[in-house]
Amino acid sequence: MNRLPEEEVRRLHPLKLAFIGDAVFECYIREYVLDKNLKMHELAIYASKFVRATSQSKIIRLLKDELSQTEWEMVLKGRNKNPKTVPKNASVSEYRYATGFETLIGYLSLIGDKERLLEIVEKSIRIIEKEINSGENSK
């Protein structure tokens, strides 16, 4: 993906950033779960544990103190958009934080900050893996 000037990315509608962030995060997660030696159906179920709104909401809340002011502003920018629909397994608050998370991922991807993007994705994976291994995310 081509790097865009940060000023241009900041002017994009937050839901456009979340649209990109959703796809980028999903790709990283799909690549990650390939190493799990699971059947196709099991891969999809396993990947869904990382990309669901409840998980992304948990991730962003746990990473809040590790984000720069600019990164947190992007989360808030995405979070403050009113959703037209909410997934049946997430609260409005969880969905809004998940949208903020995706906005941040889209922002980092579009400005070309791959190092920071990978750092956040790797921390996200560790957070959800810990939850899965403790049995909290078994649905």
Characterization of this structure:
The protein is mostly helical and 139 residues long. The protein has a single domain, classed as Ribonuclease III domain (Ribonuclease iii, N-terminal Endonuclease Domain, Chain A). The protein has seven helices and no strands. The relative contact order is 0.20.
**Number of alpha- plus pi-helical segments:** 7
CATH topology: Ribonuclease iii, N-terminal Endonuclease Domain, Chain A
| Percent in helix | over 70%
End-to-end separation: 34 Å
Structural class: mainly alpha
Give the CATH H-level superfamily: Ribonuclease III domain
The biggest sheet, with number of strands, parallel, antiparallel or mixed sense and barrel status, is: none
C-alpha Rg (nearest Å)? 14 Å
What's the quick description here?
The protein has 139 residues and is mostly helical. Helices cover 73% and strands 0% of the residues.
Task: Sum up the structure in keywords.
single chain, 139 residues, mainly alpha, Ribonuclease iii, N-terminal Endonuclease Domain, Chain A, 7 helices, 73% helix, globular
